[in-house]
Amino acid sequence: MVEPSEDTDLLFKALADPNRRKLLDLLHQHDGRTLGELCEHMDMTRQGVTQHLDVLEAANLVATVRRGREKLHFLNPVPLQEIYERWIAKFEKPRLKALTDMKRRLEKGNG
Amino acid sequence: MVEPSEDTDLLFKALADPNRRKLLDLLHQHDGRTLGELCEHMDMTRQGVTQHLDVLEAANLVATVRRGREKLHFLNPVPLQEIYERWIAKFEKPRLKALTDMKRRLEKGNG
DNA sequence: ACACAATGCAAGTAATGACTTGCCTATTAA
DNA sequence: TTAATAGGCAAGTCATTACTTGCATTGTGT
C-alpha cells in the first residue's frame, strides 16, 4: 500500500459507492432527514443504509444529531471543496483559466 | 443496487484507490510515460500497475498510445471537470457564492 | 406501565477488489 | 537470428466490502 492521507482516502472511498452518492443527493435535496426517511428512498434494509451513512460520517460528509429517538442527518459539503482543490483545480486550473480568460475577452469584445 | 450512471461510477471507483491517484499524480507531473517508467514509482508488480491503469483507462482518465513495444500513458483531466460540475459545484455553489459575496463586500468596505 | 416506533449492535455471507505468480507475445538491437 | 526488453493474458489468493438476518436498546404517546 501507498501512504495515503487517511482523510482523503476515506473521502474518495465514501464517494465510490452509488448508494452513498444517492444519500448525499437526498440530503442535498432536503437536509436534516431521519434515518427512516432516508430508508424510504433506498432499496435495501435499514442496516444497509445505516452502514452507508456511517461511512459518509467517517468521511465527514455527513453530520448527525439525535433528537429523541430519531437521528437527523446533515450534509457537510466542505470535504468536497478539499477534493476540488487537491484533485480538480490542480489538474484543471490551466484549462479552466484558459476558458475563463477567453470568456472574459469575448464578453469584453461583444459588450 | 441503484441505477448509477455507468460513467460516473467508473470514475469514482477509479479515484477510490490511493495507488491510482498516485498514478494520476505521476502523469500530472510528467505525461506520456511508459508502463515501465510508471512501475519504477509504484511499490507493486508490473501487473498490478497495469490493472490499475486499465481501471483509469476505463474511467477515461488515462489514454494510451503504443509506440513500438512501449505503451505511453496520457492524463485526461476532462472527467474530473465533470465531477466538479456534478458533485462539487452543485453542493458548494451556494456556500462559495456566499463566501465570494462576503469577500467582495469586505474589500469594498476596507478599500 | 404498555405497545409501538426509531435506531443500534453483531455475526454471517456473497461478491468485489487488489495483488501475485507463471507463462506467452511482440518489438528492438546486436 | 537470437537475446534482451516491454508489455499482455489468465488464474489464483487474500482482504475488503456490501448487504442481510436476528435480536437488543431507547424513546414516545396513551
Q: Specify the CATH architecture of the largest domain in chain A.
A: Orthogonal Bundle
- Counting DSSP H or I runs of 4 or more residues, the number of helices of chain A is 5
Fraction in helix of chain A: 55-70%
Indicate the multimeric state.
homodimer
Shape field of chain A: elongated
CATH superfamily of the largest domain in chain A: Winged helix-like DNA-binding domain superfamily/Winged helix DNA-binding domain
Task: Please report the total strand number of chain A as a whole number.
Answer: 3
Q: Most extensive interface, residues per chain?
A: A-B, 30 and 29 residues
What is the CATH level 1 assignment of the largest domain in chain A? Mainly Alpha
Tell me the strand order in the biggest sheet of chain A: 1-3-2
Mean pLDDT score of chain A, rounded?
86
SSE-based structural type of chain A: alpha+beta
Task: Quote the distance from N terminus to C terminus of chain A.
Answer: 55 Å
Q: What is the CATH topology descriptor of the largest domain in chain A?
A: Arc Repressor Mutant, subunit A
Order of helices and strands of chain A: HHEHHEEH
Biggest beta-sheet profile of chain A: 3 strands, antiparallel
* Strand residue percentage of chain A: 5-15%
